[in-house]
Amino acid sequence: MLICPQCKFENPNSNKFCQNCGTSLTHKVCPECSTDVPINALRCHNCSTECGTVFWAIIAKETNGEALGVEKNQGKKGDVGVEGDEGAIYSSSPLPPSFQIALGSYLDSQERYQLLYMLPGQTETTTITDVGVRVLDCQPYQISPIEAILANQQSDLLTPSVETSGIPRLAKLYIALQSQGQREIPPIHDAWQQGDMQVVIIEDRSHWQPLLERWQEETTSSLKILHWCYQMTQLWAVLEPVNCRQSLLDLSNLRLDEDQTLALQRLYVESSSSQAAIKSPEDAEAQTFAIPEEPLTIQALGRVWQALFRQSQRTQFGSVVQMLGDLDVGKIHTIAQLRSRLEEISVELEALGTATLPPIKEKNTAVPTIPQSDEPEDIISKTDDMATVVLPMQLSSLEDAGRTDVGRQRHHNEDYFGIESKIQKLELPKNRVLEGHGLYILCDGMGGHAGGEIASELAVNTLRQYFQEHWIANQLPTEDSIREAVFLANEAIYKLNQQDARSGVGRMGTTLVMLLIQDTEAAVAHVGDSRLYRLTRKRQLEQVTVDHEVGQREITRGVEASIAYARPDAYQLTQALGPRDENSINPDVDFFEINEDTLLLLASDGLSDNDLIETHWQTHLEPLLSSSVNLEQGVTDLIDLANQQNGHDNITGILIRAKVRPNLES
Predict the structure, then answer these.
(1) Quick one: 435 and 350 in the same domain?
(2) Can you tell me the distance from the alpha carbon of 576 to that of 487, in angstroms, rounded to the nearest whole number?
(3) What pLDDT, in 10s, does the model give residues 585-644?
(4) Which end of the chain is less enclosed by CB atoms within 10 A, N or C?
(5) Quick check: 470 and 478 in contact, CB under 8 A?
(6) Do residues 143 and 244 both lie within one domain?
(7) Is residue 567, in this structure, part of any structural domain at all?
């Protein structure tokens, strides 16, 4: 089946266009010059922009049923974590001679994944057993078996109906960690077993910024470095039960995402002798630094941090020197003790005035002891309650986009929206502050032509004017203030109805959903059935508002949902702005914190009807969490989707992307 990139409709493999929405299944549009490019092409033939779908392929040999991780390093250029001349990463010991590794060849018999780099052959000085290389997906609209498994899984790792015997052991580690929402680990895309070789296709992070590069920048604060160390201790606790701590001991494997959060390029499985290796800064050829053959301990983390300081040529600050020394001689035995020391250092930095922010704190310093198990999924499922660090957050960016459309059946648009946002940025060598202020209003009018349109526009303008006068700088309005604003909007429409002697269904009115943002604090007010949705990577999609309609009213009274919405008047509004005086409305007002990267969507019912958002959020909202994706295009795609799937009403959407980061700048 070919999955349409636009509407996610399943099409036969022979289709050249989606039979649901008409999108091409053979070509894509170049994001740079808008030229049609074949989906199996790496670059645009017009402007040479890379627009193909590229993944990172891991080719590993299995030994005694265990996924191969790191062999004993010989100090050669072929060691794990060393980037070769052709852009591949590999380690020692031979792959079978029959394995195809020529440039441009395919990893699979279906000729889907094409190698983008020449890999060393068996005649090279260095033989290989574990290879990582970029590959081009020549059939990007084909759903892979792994993707199907992840799409069908519910509470268990794999659904009982799925045959898992063909899934490589290494792939199961990625699946287990992905199912637990570990964003530091690259998501898996595909995997298969080929004789004694396992092939795993994951997200390509080879272009992500190396941690070492950011570590050595002068503008990187000591508290920021401390926070990365803390993240490593969190990852250590996650990776230890599945024997993948080696992934933290290779400097080239430590990357940063767009929000400067620590991430791994791939997983490395520890060998049976628990060999740990990190790059030595003294060796121009980047030889590895071998630790004696003994069970891996947190001393290895200390050596990674020492290597980062040496290679970046940064001076270690006092207490860190002592902590690293205590780690090296074994005075610090557990992750809990190590985290406690990191907290103490943050307190010291605060006291010395080298940081202007509260120290690191965590909810629970106890790290659970996790019993070993043969199945990685069983182990990972027990790490949900792992202790997490609680840090103050600050806004790093605030973006927005809105659009309204008449739809396919209406002749005029009764929806109206307003956006007022302001970003104030102060950046100095040792201080960076970003203050965000945003007012977002969406109204869906009712009352017919020259009625609903007037009501929705009047409500938006009344609210805008009120907050221009009453919103105190750098402080979110109070609940009383927000309610007063809503009552004033209601009064403005109600008076107009009275002046025009409108009655019955002729009385104009409007729904309202309004979002106010001040830095990382937010408030929402709503009347009617226009909605606010919130999407984060941890909590996924949430409908923040509850519709003011008969069906929902009956549910709050204890009636079962199926019975409540069987009523003929189930979708009739129980309140709206304008038809009646303020005694007939009771706006819902709620407050919440933005403590992780968040996408917010204000939607009229033309966009939210028929569970459109709930059905398509993974394809049309989740990608928008990334700063690299254009919000204007995102809201346009939502409108187009609503026209395809609904189209019976006016359609309006406002998208807000709020990015945050730990408040660690000195």
Answers:
(1) no
(2) 11
(3) 999 999 999 988 999 999 999 999 999 999 999 889 999 998 888 999 999 999 999 999
(4) N
(5) no
(6) no
(7) no
